[in-house]
Amino acid sequence: MSIPHKTAVAEGAAPEAPPLVERRGMPAAAPKRIAHVVSVSGSQAIAVLEKEGGAEQLFHRIEIGQLVKIPTSGAVVVGLVAAVSAPAPASGGTGMEDIRLAELSLAGEMVDDPEDGRLTFRRGVSHLPTIGDAVLMADRHDLTRVYTQPNVATVEVGSLFQDPAVPARFIVDDLLAKHFAVVGATGCGKSCALTAILQRVLEAHAHAHIVMLDMHNEYPAAFGDRAELIDPNNLHLPFWLLNFQELSAALTSSDAHHDAEVEILSDAVVWAKRRYSDASSSRQLTRRPGDTGGMSVDAPTPFRLSDVLAFLEEQLGKLDRTQATLPYRRLKARIETLVSDQRYSFMFGSLTVQDTMTDILGRLFRVPNDGRPITVIDLSTVPPEILDVVISVISRLAFDLAVWSKGGLPMLLVCEEAHRYAPASGNGFEPTRQALSRIAKEGRKYGLSLALVTQRPSELDATILSQCSTVVAMRLSTERDQQVMRANTHDGALDLLDFLPLLGDREAIVLGQGVAMPMRIRFADIASKGVPRNHNAGFSQSWSKPNLDRAGLEAIVSRWRHSGRERHQG
Q1: How far apart are CA 133 and CA 170, in angstroms?
Q2: Residue 569: its pLDDT value, please?
Q3: Edge to edge, what strands does the sheet with 411-416 contain?
Q4: Is 555 left (phi over 0), alpha (psi -120 to 50) or beta?
Q5: Where are the beta strands (DSSP E) in 298-456?
Q6: Which of 34, 285, 433, 474 has its CA 20 to 30 A from that of 142?
Q7: Sequence-distant (≥ 6) Cβ neighbours of residue 92 within 8 angstroms
Q8: In this predicted model, what pLDDT tens digit does every residue of 477-531 receive, in sequence order?
């Protein structure tokens, strides 16, 4: 077996005189011996740094996150520098020799491919190094060999921090099929990082099916004419698509009368669905009391709210006591309010009811995609009282469609600000949490994947976050968020997460199955391809001149007040 540099090291050849550190962007020099192993424990190794040749006899410069390699008898072991220290620093005049250590996280190894005899990288280490083995700095060829996986579909999203000439690539199938998360503080470039990933995926896969829940109306311009843009003005999500749990959340109260209202609503919905079904099939059958005709309260079948109101009116006519009628009267009032409130027209405002489920699913999930493989749903102006219900319905429909298509329609659901509607505290909307949790646990069986984007991973449901096999961790300043990332990341290079507070804009540490091995990267500049919208131009710029007059304020108030009316009329 041919292992590069092994012979020279074994024979004790003096290291060449390399520069202390390879300049970023400069041509790669041959790998240099920088240290030797003095301890191996599990996936960790400790090496003593060596001085390079020359008059000054300086130590080789290494940085956290750099890739190194250790030739062994059967392979070239690859590791990352996790920490550097000087436990016994030399002091002037003592004559003591300075000792410097590097802690290495072993991640994989390069072995001969039996088919073509070329060195190939694989995760896991079967030929552990031992005391005295040389540690070499990986050169550009090594970086390319490790981070560029042959014969698998990858997308280039940026460059390696260690060498900007080496592209940073994500493995498409492992990234998408096993869920991924993008985390980072506000302003670090999460939205641009997510856009860079999705733009490259869409460039390589024109027949994709991606649904993005856009909480701040950031992404309409990010994907150009490849995006189907949906907002409350053109969103059509009829109430009859809601399951009973979602419908109950929208129509019933949460006080002492909740249980009574839920029971009444269940009878009313089943009665309305049966009545609509009988009318649609032009058949009226005599049924015994309690006979639902096989109609389920959760079935996604159309019904009319007018029939629900008629049922409530009929029941009210049979009751005498005021207290017994209260749940009926409250349900009736709530339904009438939602129907008349134009802010809810996308869900409750349709004057006619038609079975348009196929059309709704086709538009939401791009079937067929007609050259627009991504749906961007602007939820920024959806009333907060109904927002969780909307997200729950979309998430549940995505899962049900994936199940009923038997995995024949791979889809990606992108959840921006995921901690808002799937919080760790348990105080969020339970149907949404259940829908996302089910996708996280079972979605990959049916070709449905999640992309979670959050600035506060500590506030995101831990069960959902733990199912993400790839984590793109950008700058995180709070210790609590960093601890959550360590607890939910299963990789041999967790030490890299210690440097999350030091990352610059558009920089990230990527861990998990979506990359060949853990790496620190810088995302590509996507300015020429469309960037997420930034609504804040900056205080210094905005406050340097008058920015809004009375007429402009009146126009804003008018749009604000009449937005629901415009949706209803549209």
Answers
A1: 32
A2: 42
A3: 167-171, 154-160, 519-523, 507-512, 470-473, 180-183, 448-454, 411-416, 210-214, 374-378, 227-230
A4: alpha
A5: 374-378, 411-416, 448-454
A6: 474
A7: none
A8: 888 888 888 887 766 566 777 778 888 888 999 988 899 888 889 998 887 667 7
Overall residue count recorded for the chain in this entry: 570
The pLDDT tens digits of the residues spanning 375-385 come to 999 998 888 88
Structure confidence by residue, pLDDT tens digits, 211-226:
999 998 889 888 989 9
Q: Worst-scoring range by mean pLDDT, 123-137, 264-278, 293-307, 439-453?
A: 293-307
pTM of the model: 0.81
Nearest to 174 by CA among 483, 510, 403, 401: 510
Q: How confident is the model at residue 148 (pLDDT cuts 50, 70, 90)?
A: confident
- Are the beta carbons of 390 and 274 closer than 8 angstroms? no
In the chain, the amino acid numbered 516 is A
Crossing angle of helices 244-251 and 322-340, in 10° steps, is 100
320 pLDDT band, cuts 50/70/90, is low
- Please give the helix or strand (H or E) that residue 228 lies within, else none: strand 227-230
Residue 105 and residue 79 in contact, taking contact as beta carbons nearer than 8 Å: yes
Rg from Cα positions in the chain:
30
- Round to whole Å and give the CA distance between 562 and 90: 75
Query: Which of helix, strand or coil describes residue 343?
Result: helix
Tell me which of 321 and 471 has the higher pLDDT.
471
Residue position matching structure tokens 């690539």: 169
420-450 pLDDT per residue, tens: 888 887 676 788 888 999 999 999 999 999 9
- State yes or no: pLDDT of 366 exceeds 70: yes
Q: What one-character DSSP code corresponds to residue 226?
A: G
Distance in angstroms (rounded) separating the CA atoms of residues 411 and 41? 42
Residue 565 Cα to chain centre, angstroms: 35
Name the residue with tokens 């810088």: 522
DSSP string, 475-522: ----HHHHHHHHHT--STTGGGGGGGGG--TTEEEEEETTSSS-EEEE
At CA 101, angle to CA 97 and CA 106, rounded to 5? 155
The answer to whether the Cα torsion of 8, 11, 12, 16 is positive or negative is: negative
**Which domains are delineated in the chain?**
6-147 (no CATH), 167-236+356-535 (3.40.50.300), 241-349+559-569 (no CATH)
Tell me which amino acid residue 25 is.
Answer: G
Alpha-carbon distances, residue 380 vs 107, 232, 338, 386 (angstroms): 42, 9, 19, 12
DSSP assignment, residue 328? Answer: H
